[in-house]
Amino acid sequence: MKDTASERLRAFRARNRQYLELGYDREAAFRGLVRQAGPLEGPALDVGTGKGLLARELACLEMDVVSVDISLDERELACLLARESDVAERIVFAQADAARLPYPDGHFGCAAMMDVLHHLEEPGPVLSEMVRLVRPGGRLLVADFDEAGFEMVARLSRQEGREHLRSAATVTLAGEILTRAGLRCLMKTKGHHHEMVVLQKERPEDRHGEGDQN
What is the pLDDT of residues 171-192, one digit of tens each? Predict the structure, then answer.
């Protein structure tokens, strides 16, 4: 019987080497984009666990993290990578629908989603839930591959006889949805084969202050 955790870890390392040969450092991408997003406060919500790379980077900033995913397929690998980085005690991995989460309004200091958007046919409900759950003054960051990044992933998938499926949802669309929801855009940036937008949920006093301006 195969050691599932060991097999998954070997596959993860092998994929990282393939990416590096194409000029993309996957782990550095998550680390760099999280740090580029500016000061983030916890607890943090990570939407779409996957391999747990975003949750790990958020936890490395000494925040408690709740990482949610509707699938359990890669939780074992995510837990293993978190333990390797000595941040497992800061992360709760939960199976949940990101459009309907069991937390009160304003429970989180920030919310983040990376390489998940293109899997969502209808991103609005998930983005709305992120807005609900972040407290006033908190930041939301949304990142996904740029066109070169998507082509790189698609090429590797085709080499393995698979197709990398992609919805019409984009970082630009996510930024528009969040701006219409009342968030203030702080940053739009590109790097590490990604596009990222960072927005802030306004505090009541911020809105009051704007109304007092002459």
Answer: 999 999 999 999 999 999 999 9
* Average pLDDT value for the chain: 92
Nearest in space to 54 (alpha carbons), one of 98, 113, 109: 113
Distances (CA, A) of 54 to 27, 68, 114: 9, 11, 7
CA 172 vs CA 35, 137, 185: distances in Å = 20, 22, 11
Q: Is 93 helix (H, G, I), strand (E, B) or coil?
A: strand
- Is the peptide bond between 39 and the residue preceding it cis, with omega within 30 degrees of 0? no
Q: What is the CA radius of gyration of the chain?
A: 17
Domain ranges of the chain: 4-211
Q: Are 1 and 67 in contact (CB under 8 A)?
A: no
Per-residue pLDDT reduced to its tens digit, 87-122? 999 999 999 999 999 999 999 999 999 999 999 999
The DSSP secondary structure of 95-121, one letter per residue, reads E--TTS-S--TT-EEEEEEES-GGG-S
Closest CA to 69 of 92, 91, 48: 48
Q: Mean pLDDT throughout 48-62?
A: 96
Q: Options 3.40.50.150, 3.90.226.10, 1.10.10.200, 3.40.50.2300; which CATH number does 4-211 get?
A: 3.40.50.150
